[in-house]
Design brief:
Number of strands: 3
Strand content: 5-15%
Length: 180
C-alpha cells in the first residue's frame, strides 16, 4: 500500500480531499438551519430577481414571485419555477470543491474560485432568461432545452473552467510533492 501511495500521492491526496469536501457538503446541506433551506432560498431569489431584471432591460414585462420556490417569466406565459433542484447550487459546490481539492496555492484558489462562481452564476441567470423566453415564445422547446441543452452546456463550461485551473492555477506534480 505504501508503494501505491508514494507512486500516486497527488491522485490519492486529491481523492481524499474530494471525498472529504463531498461529505462536508452533504452534511451541511442536510442541516435545515444552515443548509438547503437558507442557502437555496437566497440563491433562488437572486436568480429569479436577476432574470426578471434582465428581461425588463430587454423590454419585456416580466414577473417574479416567491413562496419557497420562485416563479419568474414574461407576462403572458406560464413562466418558470425555480426550485432547489435546479438552482445550480450543486454546480457551484462541485466547481469550488474540485478547485479546493486539486493542488494549487491558497492565493490562486482565493482568486480563481470567486471568478469561476461568478461565471457560473451569470451563465445560470442567462439560462433562466433564455428559458423564460422559450416559455413565452417557443414552449415546445422548453423541456428539452431545460433538461438537456442547458444541463450539458453548464457541465461543459464547468469542465472548461477546471481545465483552465489544471493548466494555469494548479501546482505541478513536482511542486505538490514538495509540500509536506
Amino acid at each position: 500500500m505504501t508503494g501505491f501511495y508514494q507512486k500516486n500521492k497527488p491522485l490519492v491526496t486529491f481523492l481524499i480531499r474530494a471525498v472529504a469536501i463531498y461529505l462536508a457538503w452533504f452534511v451541511f446541506h442536510q442541516l435545515p438551519e444552515l443548509g438547503s433551506g437558507k442557502v437555496d432560498i437566497l440563491l433562488i431569489k437572486h436568480l429569479a430577481k436577476s432574470a426578471k431584471w434582465i428581461l425588463e432591460v430587454m423590454g419585456f414585462t416580466a414577473f417574479y414571485s416567491f413562496n419557497k420556490i420562485a416563479m419568474a417569466g414574461i407576462e403572458g406565459s406560464a413562466g418558470l419555477i425555480i426550485s432547489p433542484s435546479c438552482n445550480g447550487l450543486d454546480l457551484l459546490v462541485l466547481f469550488a470543491g474540485f478547485i479546493i481539492a486539486y493542488p494549487g496555492t491558497i492565493r490562486s484558489k482565493i482568486l480563481f474560485i470567486p471568478a469561476g462562481l461568478l461565471i457560473i452564476d451569470v451563465l445560470n441567470i442567462i439560462r433562466i432568461v433564455l428559458l423564460a423566453w422559450m416559455a413565452k415564445f417557443s414552449p415546445h422547446l422548453l423541456e428539452f432545452n431545460h433538461s438537456y441543452t442547458f444541463t450539458f452546456s453548464m457541465y461543459v463550461i464547468i469542465f472548461a473552467l477546471w481545465m483552465v485551473w489544471i493548466r494555469k492555477g494548479g501546482r505541478t506534480r513536482q511542486e505538490e510533492e514538495l509540500v509536506p
